[in-house]
Amino acid sequence: MPDSPRQLPVGFNWLTCAMLALVTNLGCDQQGNAPETDLKQGAVRKPDARAAEPGVIPAPNAATSPLPQWETPEEWVKLMSEARNLPQAQSGRPRSSGQPKQARRPITVGSMLGLDEGESEQETEPDLFPQYYNLAATGSNAEFDGTIQKVEAIPDAGQRAVAYCAIARALLAEEAFERAKPWLVEGEKLLPQSRDSAGHEQLLHLYAKAFARSGDGNKAVEVAQQIANLDLREKTLISIPGQIAKTGDVKQALNFVETIPDRNSQSQALRQVTLVLARSNACNLALSLTEQITNEEIRFRALEGIVLELAKAGRGKQALDVVRQILFLHRRPWFLRALAKSLVGTGHLNQALEVAPLIEGSGEQSTYLMEVAIAVAEQGKSKQALEVVQQIPQRETKENALAKVASALLNAGEADGALKATQRLQYDNQKVRLLYRVASALHSRGEDARKIAVLKEAVAASQRSGEKPPLFSVMGVLSMETIPTEQGTSTQLKSSFSPEERQLAEYFLQAAQQKK
Predict the structure, then answer these.
(1) How far apart are CA 434 and CA 260, in angstroms?
(2) CB under 8 Å to 146, separation ≥6 — which residues?
(3) Could you tell me the pTM of the whole model?
Protein backbone atom coordinates (compact mmCIF):
# COMPACT_ATOMS: atom_id res chain seq x y z
CA MET A 1 0.00 0.00 0.00
CA PRO A 2 1.33 3.48 -0.78
CA ASP A 3 2.26 5.71 2.10
CA SER A 4 -0.02 8.56 3.06
CA PRO A 5 0.14 11.50 0.66
CA ARG A 6 2.86 13.97 1.42
CA GLN A 7 3.15 17.68 0.71
CA LEU A 8 4.78 18.44 -2.66
CA PRO A 9 7.64 20.94 -2.77
CA VAL A 10 6.84 24.56 -3.48
CA GLY A 11 7.42 25.36 -7.15
CA PHE A 12 6.20 21.98 -8.36
CA ASN A 13 2.50 22.72 -8.25
CA TRP A 14 2.43 22.99 -12.04
CA LEU A 15 3.21 19.31 -12.26
CA THR A 16 0.42 18.28 -9.93
CA CYS A 17 -2.04 20.49 -11.80
CA ALA A 18 -0.95 19.03 -15.11
CA MET A 19 -1.36 15.49 -13.89
CA LEU A 20 -4.76 16.25 -12.39
CA ALA A 21 -5.84 17.64 -15.74
CA LEU A 22 -4.42 14.56 -17.42
CA VAL A 23 -6.39 12.16 -15.25
CA THR A 24 -9.56 14.20 -15.73
CA ASN A 25 -9.29 13.55 -19.44
CA LEU A 26 -7.59 10.21 -19.13
CA GLY A 27 -7.25 8.43 -22.39
CA CYS A 28 -8.93 11.22 -24.39
CA ASP A 29 -6.34 10.92 -27.11
CA GLN A 30 -7.37 7.33 -27.60
CA GLN A 31 -11.16 7.51 -27.53
CA GLY A 32 -11.55 6.71 -31.18
CA ASN A 33 -11.08 3.34 -32.81
CA ALA A 34 -7.73 1.62 -32.97
CA PRO A 35 -5.39 3.11 -35.60
CA GLU A 36 -6.75 2.73 -39.09
CA THR A 37 -3.70 0.82 -40.30
CA ASP A 38 -4.34 -1.73 -37.58
CA LEU A 39 -7.95 -2.25 -38.57
CA LYS A 40 -7.63 -2.62 -42.31
CA GLN A 41 -7.79 -6.17 -43.54
CA GLY A 42 -4.36 -7.47 -44.35
CA ALA A 43 -2.65 -4.67 -42.44
CA VAL A 44 -2.19 -6.60 -39.22
CA ARG A 45 1.17 -7.98 -38.19
CA LYS A 46 1.71 -11.48 -36.91
CA PRO A 47 2.90 -11.99 -33.34
CA ASP A 48 6.62 -11.87 -32.75
CA ALA A 49 8.10 -15.20 -31.81
CA ARG A 50 9.86 -13.53 -28.86
CA ALA A 51 7.02 -13.95 -26.40
CA ALA A 52 7.63 -12.44 -22.98
CA GLU A 53 7.26 -14.62 -19.92
CA PRO A 54 4.07 -14.05 -17.91
CA GLY A 55 4.50 -11.51 -15.13
CA VAL A 56 7.91 -10.35 -16.40
CA ILE A 57 8.27 -6.82 -17.76
CA PRO A 58 10.93 -6.95 -20.48
CA ALA A 59 13.30 -4.10 -21.16
CA PRO A 60 12.94 -2.15 -24.42
CA ASN A 61 14.82 -3.73 -27.31
CA ALA A 62 17.31 -1.00 -28.16
CA ALA A 63 20.28 -0.33 -25.97
CA THR A 64 20.10 3.00 -24.21
CA SER A 65 22.17 5.13 -21.87
CA PRO A 66 21.80 4.66 -18.09
CA LEU A 67 18.50 6.00 -16.76
CA PRO A 68 18.41 9.10 -14.57
CA GLN A 69 18.02 8.32 -10.89
CA TRP A 70 14.67 8.95 -9.23
CA GLU A 71 12.95 7.94 -6.00
CA THR A 72 9.37 9.27 -5.92
CA PRO A 73 6.48 9.32 -8.39
CA GLU A 74 6.90 13.10 -8.44
CA GLU A 75 10.48 12.80 -9.67
CA TRP A 76 9.50 10.09 -12.15
CA VAL A 77 6.73 12.25 -13.63
CA LYS A 78 9.15 15.14 -14.01
CA LEU A 79 11.65 12.95 -15.87
CA MET A 80 8.89 11.56 -18.08
CA SER A 81 7.69 15.07 -18.86
CA GLU A 82 11.20 16.21 -19.76
CA ALA A 83 11.74 13.16 -21.97
CA ARG A 84 8.44 13.78 -23.74
CA ASN A 85 9.30 17.38 -24.67
CA LEU A 86 11.30 16.59 -27.81
CA PRO A 87 13.15 19.35 -29.68
CA GLN A 88 11.16 20.80 -32.53
CA ALA A 89 13.73 19.59 -35.09
CA GLN A 90 12.96 15.97 -34.16
CA SER A 91 9.25 16.23 -34.71
CA GLY A 92 8.01 15.51 -38.18
CA ARG A 93 6.49 18.96 -38.56
CA PRO A 94 7.05 22.31 -36.83
CA ARG A 95 4.59 23.09 -34.06
CA SER A 96 3.85 26.46 -35.60
CA SER A 97 4.27 27.79 -39.08
CA GLY A 98 5.20 31.26 -40.14
CA GLN A 99 2.97 30.94 -43.19
CA PRO A 100 -0.13 33.11 -42.98
CA LYS A 101 -3.45 31.34 -42.78
CA GLN A 102 -5.50 31.34 -45.95
CA ALA A 103 -8.27 33.89 -45.67
CA ARG A 104 -11.76 32.46 -45.73
CA ARG A 105 -14.07 33.63 -48.44
CA PRO A 106 -16.85 35.82 -47.01
CA ILE A 107 -20.18 34.08 -46.52
CA THR A 108 -22.72 35.53 -48.92
CA VAL A 109 -26.40 34.90 -49.42
CA GLY A 110 -25.62 32.93 -52.55
CA SER A 111 -22.94 30.74 -50.99
CA MET A 112 -25.26 29.77 -48.14
CA LEU A 113 -27.86 28.67 -50.67
CA GLY A 114 -25.35 26.60 -52.60
CA LEU A 115 -24.84 29.14 -55.35
CA ASP A 116 -21.43 30.05 -56.71
CA GLU A 117 -21.70 33.80 -57.11
CA GLY A 118 -18.06 34.27 -58.00
CA GLU A 119 -16.34 37.53 -57.19
CA SER A 120 -19.27 39.89 -57.51
CA GLU A 121 -18.64 43.61 -57.32
CA GLN A 122 -21.36 44.09 -54.72
CA GLU A 123 -20.98 41.72 -51.73
CA THR A 124 -23.94 41.36 -49.38
CA GLU A 125 -23.54 41.40 -45.61
CA PRO A 126 -21.71 38.22 -44.59
CA ASP A 127 -24.10 37.57 -41.70
CA LEU A 128 -27.28 38.42 -43.56
CA PHE A 129 -28.35 34.91 -44.56
CA PRO A 130 -28.38 33.30 -41.10
CA GLN A 131 -29.96 36.44 -39.68
CA TYR A 132 -33.00 36.54 -41.90
CA TYR A 133 -33.25 32.77 -42.34
CA ASN A 134 -33.59 32.24 -38.59
CA LEU A 135 -35.82 35.25 -38.02
CA ALA A 136 -38.13 34.20 -40.81
CA ALA A 137 -38.99 31.05 -38.90
CA THR A 138 -38.60 32.00 -35.25
CA GLY A 139 -38.10 35.75 -34.89
CA SER A 140 -40.59 38.34 -33.70
CA ASN A 141 -42.60 40.39 -36.19
CA ALA A 142 -40.51 43.48 -35.47
CA GLU A 143 -37.26 41.59 -36.07
CA PHE A 144 -38.67 40.01 -39.21
CA ASP A 145 -39.75 43.39 -40.57
CA GLY A 146 -36.30 44.79 -39.89
CA THR A 147 -34.75 41.89 -41.79
CA ILE A 148 -37.05 42.46 -44.75
CA GLN A 149 -35.99 46.10 -44.84
CA LYS A 150 -32.36 44.99 -45.08
CA VAL A 151 -33.22 42.63 -47.92
CA GLU A 152 -35.13 45.31 -49.79
CA ALA A 153 -32.07 47.56 -49.52
CA ILE A 154 -29.85 45.08 -51.42
CA PRO A 155 -29.07 46.90 -54.69
CA ASP A 156 -28.26 43.84 -56.82
CA ALA A 157 -31.45 42.21 -58.17
CA GLY A 158 -29.91 38.73 -58.26
CA GLN A 159 -28.79 38.89 -54.65
CA ARG A 160 -32.17 40.25 -53.64
CA ALA A 161 -33.87 37.34 -55.41
CA VAL A 162 -31.61 34.94 -53.52
CA ALA A 163 -32.57 36.61 -50.25
CA TYR A 164 -36.31 36.33 -50.92
CA CYS A 165 -35.85 32.68 -51.84
CA ALA A 166 -34.02 32.02 -48.59
CA ILE A 167 -36.78 33.66 -46.55
CA ALA A 168 -39.41 31.60 -48.34
CA ARG A 169 -37.46 28.35 -47.85
CA ALA A 170 -37.13 29.07 -44.14
CA LEU A 171 -40.88 29.58 -43.84
CA LEU A 172 -41.64 26.51 -45.94
CA ALA A 173 -39.43 24.44 -43.63
CA GLU A 174 -41.81 25.50 -40.84
CA GLU A 175 -44.79 24.70 -43.12
CA ALA A 176 -45.82 28.36 -43.05
CA PHE A 177 -47.03 28.13 -46.65
CA GLU A 178 -49.20 31.23 -46.65
CA ARG A 179 -46.39 33.42 -45.31
CA ALA A 180 -43.84 31.95 -47.74
CA LYS A 181 -45.77 32.39 -50.99
CA PRO A 182 -45.61 36.23 -51.23
CA TRP A 183 -41.83 36.22 -50.90
CA LEU A 184 -41.52 33.59 -53.62
CA VAL A 185 -43.69 35.69 -55.92
CA GLU A 186 -41.70 38.83 -55.09
CA GLY A 187 -38.38 37.11 -55.72
CA GLU A 188 -39.53 35.42 -58.92
CA LYS A 189 -40.26 38.85 -60.42
CA LEU A 190 -36.56 39.68 -60.06
CA LEU A 191 -35.29 36.58 -61.89
CA PRO A 192 -35.35 38.12 -65.41
CA GLN A 193 -33.10 40.94 -64.16
CA SER A 194 -30.47 38.43 -62.98
CA ARG A 195 -30.43 36.32 -66.15
CA ASP A 196 -26.81 37.17 -66.96
CA SER A 197 -25.47 36.74 -63.40
CA ALA A 198 -23.49 33.75 -62.20
CA GLY A 199 -25.65 31.12 -60.52
CA HIS A 200 -28.85 32.18 -62.29
CA GLU A 201 -29.75 28.67 -63.40
CA GLN A 202 -29.17 27.25 -59.93
CA LEU A 203 -31.42 29.99 -58.57
CA LEU A 204 -34.16 28.94 -61.01
CA HIS A 205 -33.76 25.39 -59.70
CA LEU A 206 -34.23 26.56 -56.12
CA TYR A 207 -37.26 28.68 -56.96
CA ALA A 208 -38.89 25.79 -58.84
CA LYS A 209 -38.43 23.48 -55.84
CA ALA A 210 -39.70 26.16 -53.46
CA PHE A 211 -42.85 26.76 -55.55
CA ALA A 212 -43.46 23.01 -55.61
CA ARG A 213 -42.95 22.83 -51.85
CA SER A 214 -45.59 25.55 -51.45
CA GLY A 215 -48.01 23.40 -53.44
CA ASP A 216 -47.92 25.40 -56.67
CA GLY A 217 -46.78 22.69 -59.06
CA ASN A 218 -47.74 24.58 -62.22
CA LYS A 219 -45.57 27.57 -61.30
CA ALA A 220 -42.75 25.19 -60.38
CA VAL A 221 -42.84 23.63 -63.85
CA GLU A 222 -43.02 27.06 -65.49
CA VAL A 223 -39.87 28.18 -63.67
CA ALA A 224 -38.08 24.87 -64.34
CA GLN A 225 -38.70 25.18 -68.08
CA GLN A 226 -36.63 28.39 -68.09
CA ILE A 227 -33.47 26.44 -67.16
CA ALA A 228 -31.25 26.21 -70.24
CA ASN A 229 -28.99 23.44 -68.90
CA LEU A 230 -30.82 20.27 -69.90
CA ASP A 231 -29.40 18.11 -67.10
CA LEU A 232 -30.28 20.65 -64.43
CA ARG A 233 -33.74 21.13 -65.94
CA GLU A 234 -34.34 17.37 -65.84
CA LYS A 235 -33.09 17.20 -62.26
CA THR A 236 -35.44 20.03 -61.29
CA LEU A 237 -38.48 18.45 -62.95
CA ILE A 238 -37.69 15.14 -61.23
CA SER A 239 -37.61 16.88 -57.83
CA ILE A 240 -41.00 18.60 -58.20
CA PRO A 241 -43.28 15.60 -57.41
CA GLY A 242 -41.34 14.86 -54.21
CA GLN A 243 -41.66 18.49 -53.09
CA ILE A 244 -45.39 18.44 -53.79
CA ALA A 245 -45.73 15.19 -51.83
CA LYS A 246 -44.34 17.00 -48.78
CA THR A 247 -47.48 19.15 -48.77
CA GLY A 248 -49.57 15.99 -48.39
CA ASP A 249 -51.07 16.18 -51.87
CA VAL A 250 -49.90 12.77 -53.11
CA LYS A 251 -52.45 12.71 -55.94
CA GLN A 252 -51.08 15.92 -57.44
CA ALA A 253 -47.53 14.62 -57.03
CA LEU A 254 -48.35 11.43 -58.95
CA ASN A 255 -50.09 13.42 -61.68
CA PHE A 256 -46.89 15.39 -62.20
CA VAL A 257 -44.88 12.17 -62.39
CA GLU A 258 -47.00 11.13 -65.38
CA THR A 259 -46.11 14.35 -67.21
CA ILE A 260 -42.40 13.41 -67.25
CA PRO A 261 -41.74 11.81 -70.65
CA ASP A 262 -38.56 9.86 -69.86
CA ARG A 263 -39.24 6.53 -68.09
CA ASN A 264 -36.03 6.57 -66.05
CA SER A 265 -36.76 10.12 -64.92
CA GLN A 266 -40.26 8.97 -63.98
CA SER A 267 -38.71 6.21 -61.87
CA GLN A 268 -36.44 8.70 -60.09
CA ALA A 269 -39.36 11.04 -59.39
CA LEU A 270 -41.43 8.16 -58.01
CA ARG A 271 -38.54 7.15 -55.80
CA GLN A 272 -38.45 10.63 -54.29
CA VAL A 273 -42.20 10.46 -53.63
CA THR A 274 -41.83 7.09 -51.90
CA LEU A 275 -39.06 8.46 -49.67
CA VAL A 276 -41.23 11.41 -48.64
CA LEU A 277 -44.08 9.04 -47.81
CA ALA A 278 -41.83 6.64 -45.91
CA ARG A 279 -40.44 9.48 -43.80
CA SER A 280 -44.03 10.51 -43.07
CA ASN A 281 -44.70 6.99 -41.73
CA ALA A 282 -46.79 6.07 -44.78
CA CYS A 283 -44.55 3.11 -45.60
CA ASN A 284 -47.31 0.83 -46.90
CA LEU A 285 -48.40 3.42 -49.48
CA ALA A 286 -44.75 3.97 -50.39
CA LEU A 287 -44.29 0.23 -50.92
CA SER A 288 -47.29 0.06 -53.24
CA LEU A 289 -45.88 2.90 -55.34
CA THR A 290 -42.54 1.13 -55.84
CA GLU A 291 -44.37 -1.36 -58.05
CA GLN A 292 -44.81 1.45 -60.59
CA ILE A 293 -41.04 2.07 -60.79
CA THR A 294 -39.90 0.50 -64.05
CA ASN A 295 -36.14 0.89 -63.57
CA GLU A 296 -35.11 -2.07 -61.41
CA GLU A 297 -32.08 -0.48 -59.73
CA ILE A 298 -34.01 2.69 -58.90
CA ARG A 299 -36.78 0.51 -57.43
CA PHE A 300 -34.21 -1.26 -55.22
CA ARG A 301 -32.90 2.12 -54.03
CA ALA A 302 -36.46 3.19 -53.23
CA LEU A 303 -36.93 -0.02 -51.23
CA GLU A 304 -33.67 0.70 -49.37
CA GLY A 305 -35.06 4.03 -48.20
CA ILE A 306 -38.33 2.45 -47.11
CA VAL A 307 -36.50 -0.34 -45.24
CA LEU A 308 -34.43 2.16 -43.26
CA GLU A 309 -37.54 4.14 -42.29
CA LEU A 310 -39.29 0.92 -41.21
CA ALA A 311 -36.27 -0.06 -39.13
CA LYS A 312 -36.08 3.37 -37.49
CA ALA A 313 -39.77 3.10 -36.64
CA GLY A 314 -39.18 -0.22 -34.87
CA ARG A 315 -40.93 -2.30 -37.53
CA GLY A 316 -38.09 -4.78 -37.82
CA LYS A 317 -40.08 -7.74 -39.11
CA GLN A 318 -41.62 -5.75 -41.96
CA ALA A 319 -38.22 -4.23 -42.72
CA LEU A 320 -36.76 -7.74 -43.09
CA ASP A 321 -39.58 -8.74 -45.43
CA VAL A 322 -38.80 -5.77 -47.69
CA VAL A 323 -35.04 -6.48 -47.60
CA ARG A 324 -35.81 -9.85 -49.19
CA GLN A 325 -37.11 -7.96 -52.26
CA ILE A 326 -33.78 -6.20 -52.81
CA LEU A 327 -31.25 -7.98 -55.01
CA PHE A 328 -27.44 -7.61 -55.02
CA LEU A 329 -27.20 -6.71 -51.33
CA HIS A 330 -23.45 -7.32 -51.44
CA ARG A 331 -23.12 -4.23 -53.65
CA ARG A 332 -24.83 -1.99 -51.05
CA PRO A 333 -22.37 -1.55 -48.17
CA TRP A 334 -23.69 1.88 -47.11
CA PHE A 335 -27.24 0.56 -46.93
CA LEU A 336 -26.21 -2.55 -44.99
CA ARG A 337 -24.29 -0.51 -42.46
CA ALA A 338 -27.22 1.85 -41.90
CA LEU A 339 -29.59 -1.11 -41.68
CA ALA A 340 -27.47 -2.84 -39.04
CA LYS A 341 -27.40 0.28 -36.86
CA SER A 342 -31.13 0.94 -37.27
CA LEU A 343 -32.25 -2.62 -36.50
CA VAL A 344 -29.95 -3.03 -33.52
CA GLY A 345 -30.78 0.47 -32.29
CA THR A 346 -34.49 -0.38 -32.14
CA GLY A 347 -33.95 -3.73 -30.42
CA HIS A 348 -34.28 -6.00 -33.46
CA LEU A 349 -30.98 -7.88 -33.25
CA ASN A 350 -32.52 -11.14 -34.48
CA GLN A 351 -33.81 -9.48 -37.65
CA ALA A 352 -30.39 -7.88 -38.14
CA LEU A 353 -28.75 -11.30 -37.98
CA GLU A 354 -31.31 -12.77 -40.40
CA VAL A 355 -30.12 -10.31 -43.06
CA ALA A 356 -26.63 -11.88 -43.17
CA PRO A 357 -27.59 -15.08 -45.09
CA LEU A 358 -29.25 -12.90 -47.74
CA ILE A 359 -25.87 -11.31 -48.61
CA GLU A 360 -23.75 -13.00 -51.28
CA GLY A 361 -20.11 -13.71 -50.47
CA SER A 362 -18.44 -14.50 -47.17
CA GLY A 363 -16.43 -11.27 -47.26
CA GLU A 364 -19.53 -9.08 -47.58
CA GLN A 365 -21.36 -11.17 -44.96
CA SER A 366 -18.41 -10.78 -42.61
CA THR A 367 -18.31 -7.00 -43.06
CA TYR A 368 -22.04 -6.75 -42.38
CA LEU A 369 -21.85 -8.89 -39.23
CA MET A 370 -18.97 -6.72 -38.02
CA GLU A 371 -21.25 -3.68 -38.33
CA VAL A 372 -23.94 -5.51 -36.35
CA ALA A 373 -21.43 -6.41 -33.64
CA ILE A 374 -20.19 -2.80 -33.42
CA ALA A 375 -23.77 -1.50 -33.15
CA VAL A 376 -24.45 -3.94 -30.30
CA ALA A 377 -21.19 -2.98 -28.57
CA GLU A 378 -22.09 0.71 -28.78
CA GLN A 379 -25.04 -0.13 -26.54
CA GLY A 380 -22.64 -1.61 -23.98
CA LYS A 381 -23.83 -5.20 -24.51
CA SER A 382 -20.51 -7.02 -24.46
CA LYS A 383 -21.80 -10.61 -24.29
CA GLN A 384 -24.12 -10.21 -27.28
CA ALA A 385 -21.50 -8.30 -29.27
CA LEU A 386 -18.93 -11.05 -28.81
CA GLU A 387 -21.50 -13.67 -29.76
CA VAL A 388 -22.09 -11.83 -33.04
CA VAL A 389 -18.33 -11.65 -33.66
CA GLN A 390 -18.16 -15.43 -33.35
CA GLN A 391 -20.55 -15.73 -36.30
CA ILE A 392 -18.20 -13.85 -38.65
CA PRO A 393 -16.87 -16.40 -41.16
CA GLN A 394 -13.82 -14.51 -42.42
CA ARG A 395 -10.84 -14.68 -40.05
CA GLU A 396 -9.27 -11.28 -40.62
CA THR A 397 -12.62 -9.50 -40.51
CA LYS A 398 -13.30 -11.22 -37.21
CA GLU A 399 -9.98 -9.90 -35.90
CA ASN A 400 -10.85 -6.37 -36.99
CA ALA A 401 -14.32 -6.74 -35.51
CA LEU A 402 -12.87 -7.71 -32.11
CA ALA A 403 -10.72 -4.56 -32.09
CA LYS A 404 -13.61 -2.31 -33.07
CA VAL A 405 -15.98 -3.98 -30.61
CA ALA A 406 -13.44 -3.50 -27.82
CA SER A 407 -13.13 0.18 -28.69
CA ALA A 408 -16.92 0.62 -28.83
CA LEU A 409 -17.32 -1.11 -25.46
CA LEU A 410 -14.71 1.19 -23.92
CA ASN A 411 -16.58 4.20 -25.27
CA ALA A 412 -19.75 2.76 -23.72
CA GLY A 413 -18.02 2.41 -20.33
CA GLU A 414 -17.77 -1.40 -20.46
CA ALA A 415 -14.11 -1.99 -19.57
CA ASP A 416 -14.64 -5.63 -18.57
CA GLY A 417 -16.20 -6.58 -21.90
CA ALA A 418 -13.57 -4.56 -23.75
CA LEU A 419 -10.83 -6.50 -21.97
CA LYS A 420 -12.40 -9.82 -22.97
CA ALA A 421 -12.60 -8.72 -26.60
CA THR A 422 -9.02 -7.41 -26.55
CA GLN A 423 -7.62 -10.59 -25.03
CA ARG A 424 -9.15 -12.60 -27.87
CA LEU A 425 -7.17 -10.64 -30.46
CA GLN A 426 -4.49 -12.70 -32.16
CA TYR A 427 -2.23 -9.87 -33.27
CA ASP A 428 -0.35 -7.87 -30.66
CA ASN A 429 -0.21 -4.66 -32.66
CA GLN A 430 -4.00 -4.45 -32.38
CA LYS A 431 -3.91 -5.29 -28.69
CA VAL A 432 -1.45 -2.67 -27.47
CA ARG A 433 -3.43 0.56 -27.49
CA LEU A 434 -6.64 -1.19 -26.49
CA LEU A 435 -4.95 -2.69 -23.44
CA TYR A 436 -3.63 0.72 -22.40
CA ARG A 437 -7.13 2.14 -22.82
CA VAL A 438 -8.56 -0.65 -20.67
CA ALA A 439 -5.92 0.09 -18.00
CA SER A 440 -6.95 3.75 -18.12
CA ALA A 441 -10.62 2.80 -17.65
CA LEU A 442 -9.78 0.53 -14.70
CA HIS A 443 -7.68 3.32 -13.20
CA SER A 444 -10.63 5.70 -13.36
CA ARG A 445 -12.67 3.10 -11.47
CA GLY A 446 -10.00 2.78 -8.80
CA GLU A 447 -9.22 -0.88 -9.59
CA ASP A 448 -5.46 -0.66 -9.09
CA ALA A 449 -4.70 -4.37 -8.93
CA ARG A 450 -6.44 -5.13 -12.22
CA LYS A 451 -4.97 -1.99 -13.77
CA ILE A 452 -1.41 -3.16 -13.00
CA ALA A 453 -2.14 -6.61 -14.43
CA VAL A 454 -3.46 -5.09 -17.66
CA LEU A 455 -0.50 -2.69 -17.89
CA LYS A 456 1.88 -5.62 -17.62
CA GLU A 457 -0.05 -7.40 -20.35
CA ALA A 458 0.11 -4.26 -22.50
CA VAL A 459 3.86 -3.94 -21.98
CA ALA A 460 4.38 -7.56 -23.05
CA ALA A 461 2.26 -6.98 -26.17
CA SER A 462 4.20 -3.77 -26.91
CA GLN A 463 7.47 -5.64 -26.67
CA ARG A 464 6.37 -8.48 -28.93
CA SER A 465 4.88 -6.23 -31.61
CA GLY A 466 7.29 -3.30 -31.46
CA GLU A 467 4.39 -0.89 -30.85
CA LYS A 468 5.35 2.04 -28.63
CA PRO A 469 3.34 2.63 -25.46
CA PRO A 470 1.24 5.83 -25.21
CA LEU A 471 3.56 7.46 -22.69
CA PHE A 472 1.50 10.58 -22.05
CA SER A 473 -1.60 8.73 -20.81
CA VAL A 474 0.51 6.15 -19.00
CA MET A 475 2.00 8.90 -16.83
CA GLY A 476 -1.37 9.65 -15.28
CA VAL A 477 -2.51 6.04 -15.03
CA LEU A 478 0.60 4.99 -13.13
CA SER A 479 1.35 8.03 -10.99
CA MET A 480 -2.08 9.26 -9.85
CA GLU A 481 -4.46 7.80 -7.29
CA THR A 482 -8.03 8.43 -6.23
CA ILE A 483 -8.71 8.65 -2.49
CA PRO A 484 -12.00 9.07 -0.60
CA THR A 485 -12.70 12.42 1.03
CA GLU A 486 -15.58 13.92 2.97
CA GLN A 487 -16.83 15.53 -0.22
CA GLY A 488 -16.46 12.32 -2.28
CA THR A 489 -13.14 11.50 -3.93
CA SER A 490 -9.95 13.35 -4.75
CA THR A 491 -7.29 12.59 -7.37
CA GLN A 492 -3.69 13.33 -6.51
CA LEU A 493 -0.12 12.32 -7.19
CA LYS A 494 1.00 9.17 -5.37
CA SER A 495 3.57 9.46 -2.63
CA SER A 496 5.30 6.17 -3.54
CA PHE A 497 5.21 3.26 -5.95
CA SER A 498 4.69 -0.40 -5.13
CA PRO A 499 7.43 -2.76 -6.43
CA GLU A 500 5.30 -3.72 -9.44
CA GLU A 501 4.48 -0.08 -10.19
CA ARG A 502 8.15 0.87 -9.91
CA GLN A 503 9.10 -1.87 -12.36
CA LEU A 504 6.57 -0.54 -14.84
CA ALA A 505 7.73 3.03 -14.24
CA GLU A 506 11.31 2.05 -15.08
CA TYR A 507 10.15 0.44 -18.31
CA PHE A 508 8.16 3.49 -19.41
CA LEU A 509 10.97 5.87 -18.50
CA GLN A 510 13.41 3.85 -20.54
CA ALA A 511 10.95 3.86 -23.48
CA ALA A 512 10.61 7.64 -23.14
CA GLN A 513 14.38 8.11 -23.01
CA GLN A 514 14.77 6.16 -26.25
CA LYS A 515 12.60 8.73 -28.02
CA LYS A 516 14.98 11.57 -27.15
Answers:
(1) 56
(2) none
(3) 0.75
